[in-house]
Amino acid sequence: MKTINITINGTQRKIDIDENDRLLDVIREGFHLTGTKEGCGEGECGVCSVLLDGKLVNACMIMAFQAEDAEVITIEGIGENEKLDPIQQAFIDTGAVQCGFCTPGMVLSAKALLMKNPAPTKQEIRRGISGNLCRCTGYEKIVEAVTLASKRIAKTEQK
Amino acid sequence: MYEIEKTYKPRSIHSLLDAMEETGYDGKIIAGGTDVVVKIREGALKAKALIDISTIKEMQFIRVVEGKVQIGAGTTFSEIEDHDLFEGRLKGLKEGAMEVGSPQIRNAGTIGGNICNASPAADTVPPLLALNAKVVLQSRQGLRSMTLEDFFLGKGKVDLGPGEFLYYIEFEQMTGEQGLGFEKLGPRKALAISKICTAVFIDLDKDLILRDIRIANGSLGPNSLREREVEAVLKGKKLTEELKEKAQIKFKEVISLRLKGRSGVDFKEEAIRGIFKQALEKSIAEAGSQTKAVQ
Ligand SMILES: Cc1cc2nc3c(=O)[nH]c(=O)nc-3n(C[C@H](O)[C@H](O)[C@H](O)COP(=O)(O)OP(=O)(O)OC[C@H]3O[C@@H](n4cnc5c(N)ncnc54)[C@H](O)[C@@H]3O)c2cc1C
Ligand code: FES
Ligand code: FES
């Protein structure tokens, strides 16, 4: 066991970890933030996606001790004061959520993409979410949702 | 189930060397973890101590020093993808990096991990071999350097001594008459680990003589390999359609011999002809103004 510091969703926390824990284990079982899912556990499906120091990564591929002193943002940490992030809202409005298992990861991938590229093409969106599998939607609605979110964000920024 | 007892997170090369010593040179280095974590969880890798190098800033750089491009082992695929240096002539390396997995894997996975993992399907390795890259290793004793080609000792094996780690990779900056081409089988698909890829480096003079050519393949041997027999067909010759054809035929022969009796050999030997041709054409296009004369 060891104790590490992690800033999780904006709050600095101390947490006890086992040397064998992955970041995913600590997020779900240590911080009880269960929006981050476990699917394949081997980097293929993206349902465990989080932002680590601003970069989209799979929390199942990172050992917890590696995140010492890092800043982690999970799906619970986006949006402001109980208000949904525009990406989450766009997912709802376009019907891009079916069973919802892939959604937290998809939203974070979209978030990472739009931070870097605020007006992506459809192709760039597909590439941006290429590490996230969805068994339900066929991706079309998801691409639509990200496009809508990018437009809405651009509009509010103009104002 | 797993047996990691101790973990280290050095922030400098100095403390990395200390940590390596403290584990009796038995600690496993972990960078992006995209290979290591999978292996630990599969039980294929047993480690009592892990040493994380992902936050050692001194190992994260892309720079040009006295005509040599140097890439720190801790540089991620995404950092290569985003760097201007890999826009023009060196695009072949960027294309290799962009082939890798998904955004998540590219953000975490490092070029050093790609090399040290020594998988035959490492996407950045064929372009680096074609560039005749050298690895620079560091230990308490100082620096040691060798060609990337010599660094590979077989599938999953590299020539790293105890207490040694990969510090950076370097290769000569390309000049006006040189080109690098990269091509991979089939359309890019996220997460499909590279099946076959080929990188070609050429140095072409005004009279279309191939002063130099280096060809490297992925997934057609225990590690990525230089294809010297094919290079020999081309080197020093005038680049004509006929010569290209001859090289393609040679390539097919070489692969067919190497993979004899393996599954998929028929398919692979055909595929390699096409992929090689495309990589070669790309390298010619990159090599500059002579291009028009060639086509
Ligand atoms: C879902 C998925 C998809 C993938 N797709 C691709 C793909 O398309 N193409 C591809 O090429 N690879 C792919 N990979 C493999 C992997 O992402 C790459 O090989 C990556 O480069 C590994 O880098 P890393 O930093 O994560 O290495 P790690 O897993 O941290 O380390 C890999 C090995 O290198 C050693 N090591 C790392 N850095 C050093 C150093 N500086 N000095 C000494 N030893 C070191 C480690 O001890 C370990 O043995 C994929 C992996 C996954 C999980
Ligand atoms: S659970 Fe992490 S990528 Fe599938
Ligand atoms: S909505 Fe069910 S997996 Fe994507």
Question: How are the SSEs ordered, and which strands pair?
Answer:
The complex is a heterodimer of chains A (159) and B (295).
Chain A lengths: L1 E7 L2 E7 L5 H8 L18 E4 L2 E4 L12 E3 L12 H9 L8 H14 L5 H7 L11 H19 L1
Parallel strand pairs in A: 1-5
Antiparallel strand pairs in A: 1-2, 3-4, 3-5
Helix pairs in contact in A: 2-5
Chain B lengths: L5 E3 L4 H10 L5 E3 L5 H7 L6 E4 L9 E4 L2 E5 L4 H6 L8 H9 L3 H6 L2 H6 L8 H6 L3 E6 L2 E6 H4 E3 L2 E2 L6 E8 L5 E7 L12 E8 L5 E9 L6 E2 L1 H7 L6 H18 L6 H22 L4 H4 L1
Parallel strand pairs in B: 1-3, 2-3
Antiparallel strand pairs in B: 4-5, 5-10, 6-7, 6-10, 8-9, 11-12, 12-13, 13-14
The site of one FE2/S2 (inorganic) cluster has 10 residues of chain A, from loops.
Task: Give your account of this protein's structure.
The complex is a heterodimer of chains A (159) and B (295). Chain A is an alpha+beta fold and 159 residues long. Chain A folds into 2 domains: 2-77, Ubiquitin-like (UB roll) (Roll), CATH 3.10.20; 86-158, [2Fe-2S]-binding domain (DNA polymerase, domain 1, Orthogonal Bundle), CATH 1.10.150. Chain A contains 5 helices and 5 strands. Chain A has a 5-stranded mixed β-sheet, sandwiched between helices. In chain A, a hairpin with a 2-residue loop joins β1 and β2 (11-17). The longest helix of chain A has 19 residues, at 140-158. By secondary structure, chain B is of the alpha+beta class. Chain B is built from 12 helices and 14 strands. In chain B, β8 (152-154) and β9 (157-158) form a beta hairpin. The radius of gyration of chain B is 20 Å and the shape is globular. Residues 289-295 of chain B have low confidence and may be disordered. Classes of the chains: A alpha+beta (159), B alpha+beta (295). Chain A binds chain B through residues 2, 19-20, 22, 41-44, 46, 49, 55-58, 60-63, 65-66, 68, 109, 112-113, 127-128, 130-132, and chain B through 1-7, 9, 30, 32-34, 37-38, 41, 50, 52, 54-55, 78, 101-105, 107-108, 190-191. One FE2/S2 (inorganic) cluster binds at residues 97-102, 134-137 of chain A.
